[in-house]
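Quick check before the chapter quiz. The format below is the same one you will see on the exam, so make sure you can read both the input and the output lines.
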Amino acid sequence: MSYQFRILHNHELDAVIPLVYALNEEKISKTLLVSRFNEMKLQNYECAGVYSGENLIGITGLWFCTRHYIGKSVELDHVYIQPKYRGEGLGKQFMSWINDYVKNKGYNAIELNTYIQNYPSHKFYYNAGFEILGYHFLKAL
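Here is the expected output.
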């Protein structure tokens, strides 16, 4: 099957809400997600999509910044491919496309967080060349 990868325009971001909603196991309301994505549009954020024909079947957010320890870096956020499209190499193709995209923009590192209990993602990211460098801490205010 043939897939297309591309950056979504800000006016298309509402299309990612159902996928992010599913990724978060429906714990964050769609209304709140829309509100947050409207804020994200104004920040150093882009969203890459995977399409099967006209259908958006996968996404990842891209946060662009410069970090003191690595330089120009992109942090992947909400990486998600619909379950029925997993296990056939699509994630590997998507990561390869992302690598090329961010390299062409002049960035030299990709970072991401994954949940501790998400063991399949750990294996996937190890195989994609990522290393664990530390823990991600969060304190809600």
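If your answer matched, good. The first strand starts at residue 4 and ends at 8.
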